[in-house]
User: What shape does this take?
Amino acid sequence: MADNHNQGDAIKEVGHDHAHDHGHDHDHHHDQSFISKYIFSEDHKVIAKQFLFTGIFWAVIGGLMSLVFRLQLGFPEMSMEFLRPILGGWITEAGKLEPEFYLALVTMHGTIMVFFVLTAGLSGTFSNFLIPLQIGARDMASGFMNMLSYWFFFGSSVIMFASIFLETGPASGSWVIYPPLSALPQAMSGSGAGMTMWLISMALFIISVLLGGINYITTVINLRVKGMSFTRLPLTIWAFFITAIIGLLSFPVLFSAALLLIFDRSLGTSFFLSEIYIAGEALHHQGGSPVLFQHLFWFLGHPEVYIVLIPALGITSEVIATNARKPIFGYKAMIGSILGIAVLSFIVWAHHMFVTGMNPFLGSVFMFLTLIIAVPSAVKSFNYITTLWRGNIIFTPAMMFSIGLVSMFISGGVTGIILGNNAMDIQLHDTYYVVAHFHLVMGSASFFGMMAGVYHWFPKMFGRMMDEKLGYIHFWFTFVGAYLVFFPMHYIGIAGFPRRYYAFTNFDFTKSFTDLNAFISVAAIITVFSQFVFVFNFIYSIFRGRKASENPWGSTTLEWTTPINPGHGNWPGEIPQVYRWPYDYSKPNSEKDGFGDFIPQHIPLSQTPHSNLPHEKEMLERGGNNEDEIKINEQ
Amino acid sequence: MIAGNTLDNKAEFIEEPQETLSMHPQKFALWLFIVSIIMLFAAFTSAYIVRRAEGNWLEFDLPNLFWVNTIIILMSSASMHWSLILAKKDNIDLLKIAVVITSLLGFAFLVGQLYAWKDLVASSVWFAGEQSNPAGSFLYVITGLHAVHLISGIVFLAIVLVSTFRLKIHSKRLARIEMCATYWHFLDILWLYLFGFLLLNH
Assistant: This one.
């Protein structure tokens, strides 16, 4: 029994002896106060819900912010007087949005959505929730570190939230915080205290991600239940595992960039600042290189795209296989493509920097590497579609969102091939084309994956079902809405609309697109408000939803073998051992063995003599459950 | 569940699943932590190379004290290893002394680094301000950040020291001191890398 009270250790050993503890009573049923049970909890399931609630909170804030700047872009003549009760001084005397606050809104929207919603809210929620449940562990390798991970994120959230209310405004130099704009407090009002708080908040966020990531990797490698070999891991776990590795390798680099930027801002060093005049006054800085910051930032920034996307792809693999009642097509190709994307994500960062005056030859190298990412991405899309092909599809809301992800991933990915070409990127750089591209492929796709995950694992999280009808309404509004918002953006991008402009009323070339911009804004308003259908459904179903059964989707993975409301320790008795891969759906002859169209992972091969495949029969005849042994013999 | 081929009835036979690979989770987590530190310093040293290639780079000699500090930190690694051997032999009294010596050597290294910084300032290599150059700033950041990690190593040594007094470290409970040794040797190797890097690229 793991000692749960060894406070001297920074890392606790909950379930460290997993392979040997079968038969021990592993319940943690000592009385816990409200605080230790729901607030400073070390239970991975509670921490996952904390991440989810905080993520939803941030998604609402980030979404509403986008509405304000969409109103400004779509209806530049409109009076914003009605927002004065909320935004106060950020509405000018004439009833317009303060231009500096527009920049702050765009910056905060990006920061919140990329880091707080789609990194912490997505990876934090589902890695925490699913890793121990799906690999058969009592908890994370270190519950304490896991708790710290959430509270560092919480601290980071509080600081970022507080910065919104600063009189000088939050950080406004866009979420990529390029110096010199971000490095000089006198450059704009948002580069003062707002930027300082942004940096402190992000430093805490990086610590949170690293603590979480170290825990996820350690847990996946060390705490798998007997029989759960790497080739039997659900693809969700593979995705979270690789995501954590990418985060572990890339976030320290952002930390280094942020640290150097803090020194430049506060202590007067010149890492990123070269000779510069502000308001006619020469600053003492000399010899710095702003492009160096971009290199450091995008060394994180590009892998970050995949930190956001890969968990969503993993969730989709699981949801699509379950609801198509078919084994995932190309299980090993799916793992290989995740690995391929992960490796490539580290060597393509300079495609964000084609217009920095980079040597065109170097640009071609990065273009080449970037376009290679299309290969593993296409493998994944192909496998999703072939899994759906002739499947016995059950259109649950989770399944709808997963199919939606595949659609977004393809539409957004195709424009990535265009942007990856350095010759074309020079034309399209910093236009709405880029905005459209990454909102489809990274924003919408990851958001759809997150929604699929919430709808699919809600019964395991809260013991109740979400309302399906509201789920369908939410899906169709979001799916159609996302396309209506982001598809037209490609056109205005090609037309030359630059990003981050407060208004386009001063240019002639934008005149013919005024209606299109207004259309996008209307679509965005409808899409954002339809998210409140989800928020209502989510909160309502926690308390009033239909009671869930033990395995509502007929899924094979281990989390559905736990009680409907699992306690700390997940399984009341011993952890079920694993005898097969997680995708035994619609296996021929399974009905002769007394199973429906799925055989859970914990059912031994010897109990399913009719449906075993030839290699499984061979494995049994050898008296074991060892896949490696067979491979050795085949060679 | 009943495991193994103990029952005659074939239908009741349940095969034994394969053991999964697994290591000591805390030690594994420490290695992952080390990986993140490696990435942090990899970022700094590659930023250094990129920035240096752009010119406008102040050339100066590294303080000679760095050589002395290198010897000190190597000695501390040796005494750390000695502590581990003593722990394995259950020689607790000597172990306490060895851990204290290691901490003191670590502390001496930090003081030495501080004096090296003083030498740098004396030769007008500034961290920040009007006369500073990124060459000097980088040197301070890299050595300073290494020092911060070394302080965390000394905190770890202090935890180990407290544990030895509570008799929580002996030949049957080595995990904590082994992890401390891994971390300490890593900080030593990290310094050797950083010093070598600076020697080659200053």
Notes: Strands of chain A lie at 277-278, 281-282. Chain A touches chain B through 69 residues (CB under 8 Å). Chain A has a mean pLDDT of 90. The two ends of chain A are 42 Å apart (CA to CA).
